[in-house]
Amino acid sequence: MQRSRNEAQRAHWDSAFVLRVLAPLGLPVVLLKGAAYRALGLPNAPGRLSNDLDLLVPAADIPRIEAALRTAGWERAAMPPPQERCFHDWMHELPPFVHAETGAKLDVHHNILPRIDRVRIDPAMLFASALHAPDGSLVLCPADMLLHSSIRLFRRGDFGNGLRDLLDFRDMALWFGRDPAFWKTFLDRTDRLGLRVPVYLSLRATHRLLGALWPAEAIRRTSSWGPLWPPRAWLDLLVRTAANPPRLDGRHGARSVALWLLARYPLCLWRKSIIPKVQRLVTARGRSNA
User: Radius of gyration of the chain from Cα atoms?
Assistant: First the structure.
């Protein structure tokens, strides 16, 4: 618990510092993930551990934002050029920043879905519906916040913290669902943005693994939203295996395979892992022939 309190305090300082640095630019800066949960005092915030601070900013203003961050001591984390090009060309965020003095990590997003995804989200919609938290910071509206949680689970190919993220989805859905209008707003938004499958899978996984009970209308409306392929039973097995904590004896074979497969679901995300490897291979071969 002490570690959790220390992490929360450090995250609060990091958020306040970055927002002060960017405030003179006069741009909308939206807190994402753990920082947003803490700002709103959501039930999944206490005890939640995170390694970085996540922000959503307008893509057109990234050069000004990068300049302000560098002036305040933030530097790009070192990475191979092909990986950096992958961030710029295909991803929804910049390469991570690290503060030179504090070591704090910062992820700057310009969207919530990678560019390589066939689903397209206009970030202007996210900024237009963003809300002010009690501390004055900007956060996504409840429907978009829950959608972002679902995307991280089943659209971004990142299930490394799957159990934590499933708990996030369940706790936020139950919390926001106290508003009678929430589920209709959320499902309408999901339908409009073309994100039926990740929401269906999030509802299914939190029910099967965490015992979450969802409103009958939500179940009825999403019953046809499941993926045509792969079979749902196969995905159920992968999610259940990947959500298990690492074994103490170091034997992670089944879990590692499940994480590897989920990291490549949906199939459009294969490009994220395969193409950079091909580029590195071609670059290395070119050097060897020079």
Answer: 20
- Find the helix or strand (DSSP H, E) in which 36 lies: helix 33-40
Angle of CA points 37, 186, 215, to nearest 5°: 100
- For 234-284, give the secondary structure using H, E and C: HHHHHHHHHHCCCCCCCCCHHHHHHHHHHCCCCHHHHHHHHHHHHHHHHHH
Cα within 13 Å of Cα(30), Cβ side:
25
User: How many angstroms separate the CA atoms of 239 and 258, rounded?
Assistant: 7
Q: What is the pLDDT of residue 213?
A: 96
Kind of pairing between the strands at 131-132 and 138-139: antiparallel
Is the alpha carbon torsion for 30, 72, 87, 160 positive or negative?
Answer: negative
By the 8 A CB rule, do 269 and 159 touch? no
d(CA 91, CA 269) in angstroms, rounded, equals 10
How is 40-63 classified by DSSP, letter by letter? HT-TTSTT---SSEEEE--GGGHH
Whole-number pLDDT of residue 116: 80
Query: What are the E-state strand segments in the chain?
Result: 30-32, 53-56, 74-76, 97-99, 105-109, 131-132, 138-139
* Mean pLDDT within 153-178: 90
Q: What is the pLDDT of residues 196-252, one digit of tens each?
A: 999 999 999 999 999 999 999 999 999 999 988 778 888 899 999 999 887 766 677
C-alpha distances in Å from residue 229, one per residue of 36, 79, 154, 235, 249 = 34, 35, 14, 9, 34
